[in-house]
TrEMBL record:
This is Membrane protein. Coiled coil: none annotated. GO terms for molecular function: L-lysine efflux transmembrane transporter activity. The keyword Cell membrane does not apply. Keywords: Membrane, Transmembrane, Transmembrane helix. The keyword Membrane applies. One of its GO terms (cellular component) is plasma membrane. It comes from the Bacteria. The chain crosses the membrane at residues 30-48, 60-82, 172-195. It holds the Pfam family Lys_export.
Length: 198
């Protein structure tokens, strides 16, 4: 799966460099949205065909909430550790990590404090997503299924859901979607809240 992802991205880069069809270039965002919607549609079909998934979620009960909370705790701990190796303060580094992979929102929110901090938030969360795209198949095969969701963060409900599903199973896909919704709901609360501590 990792090889397919890298080959697809590489082919896309080469296509962008050498293929100059204005119809495709001008409609690139719409085509990306269409492709993502198709991927999510097929993930939904895969989830829907397995009737036991929702019963399994009910059986898990509150335990299903522990995964997003653990991801938040681990990501914020990573932000604290990163503050010792960068010029960012403890609060700034924690706020950047609180983006949880949602690069657009965290970048906009932190740009209110400084353009530099907004740029760091954007890049660190983009790098998280790119690394997750590359590493999720390996993580799913060699480390564990729930850990694939942790790597994706907030993007586990949309962009990375198809990769997580392909690398794990449809039961994990439901947990991934739920976790992504929870994490995406927490980002607009956590980022400004942490910055207020400064």
């Amino acid at each position: 799966m990792t090889t397919k992802i890298l080959l697809s991205v590489g082919a896309g880069i080469l296509g962008g460099i050498f293929y100059r069809n204005n119809i495709i270039i001008d409609n690139l965002n719409g085509l990306i949205d269409l492709g993502l919607c198709m991927l999510l549609f097929f993930v939904g079909m895969d989830i829907g065909k397995n009737k036991e998934i929702f019963n399994d979620l009910k059986k898990m009960g509150f335990k299903v909430c522990l995964l997003p909370l653990s991801i938040v705790a681990g990501t914020l701990a990573g932000g604290v550790v990163a503050s010792f190796f960068t010029d960012l303060s403890l609060i700034e580094s924690s706020a950047v990590s609180a983006g949880l992979g949602w690069y657009s929102l965290s970048a906009i929110e932190l740009s209110k404090h400084s353009a530099e901090l907004g740029s760091v938030a954007f890049l660190s969360n983009v790098f998280r997503e790119v690394l997750a795209i590359i590493l999720i198949p390996f993580i799913g095969r060699h480390i564990g299924h729930h850990e694939t969701i942790a790597a994706a963060g907030a993007t586990s409900m949309d962009t990375l859901l198809p990769i997580i599903t392909k690398s794990t199973n449809s039961s994990i896909a439901v947990i991934s979607f739920f976790t992504g919704v929870v994490l995406s709901s927490l980002v607009p609360i956590l980022v400004p809240l942490i910055m207020r501590l400064q």
